[in-house]
Write a structure and sequence with these properties.
Blueprint: E1 2-5, H1 11-23, H2 29-39, H3 43-48, E2 50-56, E3 59-70, E4 78-87, H4 96-110, E5 115-119, H5 125-130, E6 134-140, E7 150-157
Parallel strand pairs: 4-5
Antiparallel strand pairs: 1-2, 2-3, 3-4, 5-7, 6-7
Helix pairs in contact: 1-2
Domain N-acetyltransferase: 1-159
GO molecular function: acyltransferase activity, transferring groups other than amino-acyl groups
Keywords: Acyltransferase, Transferase
Length: 159
């Protein structure tokens, strides 16, 4: 296993992996198509953020994208936003996601972030809680067949 900085040439494989990983949770093909743009990773995104890929057997097995923002205009302390974190389904529940998330936390610390904000898929809630994040709210995110669906909002405080 190796984790390296993502490059523009990785963008298509990263986009495909995001779609594959989200589909793993049983979302319909129609719903996946609606999310295609949200799951698209562009070379421009990679240039403007802190993006890393995990390689296993010379293939991208997971990745994350981290951006930096300030809590408000008067804040001098940055916070990181976890834009994406995806693991190929065949590597889920093997510690790869935890290793990738730990790497993201270390990058955020180096960038002097005090916390990582996470807008999570409902299926990822338990993962982030197990990694030490705290649920601070939720956003309504209804989809066809699940009008009450919400996206958990989490924060991981960095020491």
């Amino acid at each position: 296993m190796g984790i390296r900085k993502a490059v523009a040439a990785d963008a298509p494989a990263m986009s495909a992996l995001a779609m594959q990983s989200k589909q793993h949770w049983g979302y319909s093909a129609e719903q996946m198509e609606k999310w295609r743009d949200d799951l698209h990773i562009s070379p421009q995104m990679l240039a403007e953020t802190h993006a890393y890929v995990m390689e296993l057997d010379r293939e991208i097995a997971g990745f994350y994208v981290l951006s930096i923002a300030f809590a408000d205009a008067s804040s001098a302390t940055p916070a990181s936003q976890l834009e994406h974190l995806w693991i190929a389904p065949e590597y889920m529940r093997q510690g790869q996601g935890r290793a990738l998330f730990a790497h993201a936390c270390n990058v955020a610390r180096r960038l002097e972030s005090r916390q990582i904000n996470i807008d999570a898929d409902p299926y990822a809630l338990d993962f982030y809680i197990a990694c030490g994040a705290q649920k601070v709210g939720e956003i309504a995110a209804p989809i066809e067949g699940d009008a009450s669906r919400v996206r958990p909002q989490l924060v991981l405080k960095l020491d």
